[in-house]
């Protein structure tokens, strides 16, 4: 299977610019980056993709065992880089893709020139002195709802996702895939996302790293951003004046500006 | 403005109001002109939030459901604070991004957490209210009680799980029954090689193909491959009958034509009402130890002709005659002889292979066909039994959904001379 088809890889942006790989998190797909991509695509060559099990990735590539751990997703990221022969790209990962990027960067330390971790959380569950923001019960609640709520996901969501006459600029193919998730795949991805503990992997990161967090984030609270910052030597932490877990949607200009100035500094 | 659920803050106006519209005097239900009351005491929850989720306005119905006072929420809490932990994640990872991308989202199942910690299943619909320039200003959300629906969904889920368990049990039974109709381990006559393969078109129905290869008391070996009409339990009963009738026949009279005649009589007597019949190739082989190959006496009842893959790379359809077994009262069968020399392989197969409809087939009827099989066999020959069967498995894989019937293959080969 071609890696490009498997992960619905899209290459766009400025030819000859530094390469930026944009990885979406749990819940949506590469469309999540559309506003940010419009900004940083002016100076960067962008590589967008969908994780297997999300968006327009090839559903036949799904393998419940392979994608039960974040290593499976990290393997895919590295194979995309190899397949496209990307030379020292900057990896930008949102949410769980921050952890996926950290795993990939540690596996091949010379692969990436820099990491940008957008609202990262290496561990979502509270643990002694560490505050991840959630209890195990919260996560079980989510996983349970993915199972019991499949009607709400597969049927109720679909009609709305299809077509949006008021906003024709969101093409049908976009709205058809955005956030539509096969509940069985979503459950495996959710398990891998919310039950993983990658705190110990942070200290091994050796590439320049930017951490972007939101002032108000119900999923990755500021303490978590601070923890990641403290664990990755030499990392930079920027707190955006934004709300929610997805600054690329709630504050796309600020998000793009933060990435741009970090890369400028790194390439100087 | 301190409206609460169940209390109408405005009440009914003075008497002059009534006299102004005498026609409505007898129908107070038509006096639905109190918008504040319509909002506060609507049969669903209403909530307006700022773009960051902060609650700006909330109606009495929702406050009553949640058990909060207005001042505890407005300006102090966000919508996602009202959700359960799992719902909060769902809200942040799906709901909010979709709302931001599309400007609306509807019918999403979430659970509210009330002040006392209990949960209310709800359906949530939100739209982004835009200003005159199109810039987003507020999010308006309507929340419907979904207790009944959730209970119904749970019943559906339970029913689905029960159905999946039943399905699993059925597959298990079918698999077991199917295996009981095929040899557990294929035996191989001394000095020869053999291989077989069976692919059921369906996992929830017993297929109708069967084969066997077994020693007779005098050193000869019997073999057959057949295909019973239909599928399922009825076909399985016929398959079992055919298989054991053929094996039993060889005990007292090892003659293929006689065995088929016998089977024809049995099937006709048992199943003519149900139009159950089968096609089958039945043979008895004798090793020619001096030469290294074998000769086989073969009879066929309406079955696709066996293929011989020869050591020199040529192939040969072995012609057979004989009517479908069990379809007519007095069918006659004739024996023919196949000589299988060292390096040759005899291949029996069911019509699932030739009748398959592979994507991109170039035949007039879209079937794979005997001609294509001959070409394929020529590309293989010479091939030992195991290699020939492995190649056919690969071929079947390429048919994909074009493979609509069960397929059985049995290959018996004579190893090439060793000089």
From TrEMBL, chain A:
Pfam families: Abhydrolase_6 (PF12697). SUPFAM superfamilies: alpha/beta-Hydrolases. Residues 20-258 form the AB hydrolase-1 domain. It comes from Micromonospora saelicesensis. Belongs to the AB hydrolase superfamily. One of its GO terms (molecular function) is catalytic activity. InterPro entries: AB_hydrolase_1 (IPR000073), AB_hydrolase_fold (IPR029058). This is Pimeloyl-ACP methyl ester carboxylesterase.
UniProtKB/TrEMBL annotation, chain B:
SMART domains: PAS, PP2C_SIG. The keyword Hydrolase applies. Residues 7-21 have a biased composition (Basic and acidic residues). Residues 1-24 are annotated as: Disordered. Residues 31-83 form the PAS domain. GO terms for molecular function: phosphatase activity. This is PAS domain S-box-containing protein.
């Amino acid at each position: 299977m071609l890696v490009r088809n498997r992960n619905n890889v899209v290459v766009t942006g400025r030819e000859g610019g530094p390469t930026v790989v944009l990885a979406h998190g749990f819940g949506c797909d590469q469309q999540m980056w559309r506003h940010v991509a419009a900004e940083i695509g002016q100076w960067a060559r962008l590589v967008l993709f969908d994780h297997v099990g999300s968006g327009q990735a090839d559903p036949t590539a799904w393998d419940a065992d392979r994608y039960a751990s974040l290593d499976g997703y990290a393997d895919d990221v590295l194979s995309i880089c190899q397949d496209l022969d990307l030379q020292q790209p900057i990896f930008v990962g949102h949410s769980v893709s921050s952890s996926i990027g950290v795993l990939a960067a540690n596996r091949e330390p010379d692969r990436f020139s820099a990491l940008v971790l957008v609202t990262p959380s290496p561990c979502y569950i509270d643990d002694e002195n560490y505050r991840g923001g959630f209890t195990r019960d919260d996560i079980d609640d989510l996983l349970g709802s993915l199972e019991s709520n499949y009607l709400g996901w597969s049927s109720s969501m679909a009609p709305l996702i299809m077509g949006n006459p008021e906003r024709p600029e969101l093409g049908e193919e976009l709205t058809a895939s955005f956030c539509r998730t096969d509940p069985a795949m979503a459950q495996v991805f959710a398990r891998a996302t919310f039950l993983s503990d990658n705190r110990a992997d942070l200290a091994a990161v050796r590439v320049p790293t930017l951490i972007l967090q939101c002032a108000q984030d119900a999923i990755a609270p500021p303490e978590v951003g601070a923890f990641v910052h403290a664990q990755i030597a030499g990392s930079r932490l920027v707190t955006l004046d934004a709300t929610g877990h997805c600054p690329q949607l709630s504050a796309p200009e600020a998000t793009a500006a933060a990435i741009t100035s970090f890369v400028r500094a790194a390439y100087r | 403005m301190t409206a609460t659920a169940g209390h109408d803050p405005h009440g009914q106006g003075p008497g002059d109001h009534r006299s102004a519209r005498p026609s409505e005097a007898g129908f107070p239900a038509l006096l639905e002109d109190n918008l504040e009351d319509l909002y506060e005491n609507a049969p669903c929850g209403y909530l307006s939030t700022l773009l960051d989720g902060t609650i700006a306005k909330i109606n009495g119905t929702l406050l009553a459901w949640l058990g909060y006072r207005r001042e505890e929420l407005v300006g102090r809490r966000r919508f996602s604070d009202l959700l359960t932990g799992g719902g909060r994640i769902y809200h942040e990872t799906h709901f909010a991004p979709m709302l931001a991308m599309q400007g609306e989202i509807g019918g999403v199942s979430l659970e509210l957490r009330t002040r006392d910690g209990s949960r209310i299943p709800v359906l949530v619909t939100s739209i982004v209210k835009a200003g005159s320039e199109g810039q987003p200003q507020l999010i308006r959300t309507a929340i419907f009680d979904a207790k009944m629906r959730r209970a119904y969904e749970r019943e559906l889920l339970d029913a689905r799980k029960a159905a999946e368990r039943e399905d699993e049990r059925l597959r298990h039974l079918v698999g077991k029954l199917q295996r009981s109709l095929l040899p557990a381990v294929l035996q191989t006559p001394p000095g020869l090689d053999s291989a077989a393969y069976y692919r059921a078109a369906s996992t929830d129905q017993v297929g109708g193909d069967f084969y066997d290869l077994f020693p007779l008391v005098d050193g000869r070996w019997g073999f057959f491959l057949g295909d019973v009409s239909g599928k399922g339990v009825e076909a399985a009963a016929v398959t079992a009958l055919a298989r054991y009738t053929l094996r039993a026949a060889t005990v007292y009279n090892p003659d293929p034509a006689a065995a088929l005649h016998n089977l024809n009589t049995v099937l006709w007597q048992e199943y003519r009402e149900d139009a159950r019949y089968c096609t089958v190739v039945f043979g008895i082989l004798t090793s020619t130890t001096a030469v290294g190959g074998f000769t086989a006496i073969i009879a066929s009842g309406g079955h696709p002709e066996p293929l011989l893959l020869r050591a020199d790379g040529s192939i040969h359809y072995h012609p057979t005659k004989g009517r479908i077994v069990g379809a007519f009262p007095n069918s006659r069968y004739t024996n023919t002889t196949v000589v299988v020399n060292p390096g040759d392989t005899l291949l029996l197969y069911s019509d699932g292979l030739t009748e398959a409809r592979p994507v991109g087939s170039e035949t007039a009827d879209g079937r794979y066909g005997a001609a294509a099989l001959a070409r394929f066999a020529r590309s293989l020959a010479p091939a030992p039994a195991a290699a020939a069967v492995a190649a056919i498995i690969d071929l079947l894989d390429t048919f994909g959904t074009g493979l609509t019937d069960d397929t059985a293959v049995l290959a018996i080969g004579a190893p090439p001379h060793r000089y």
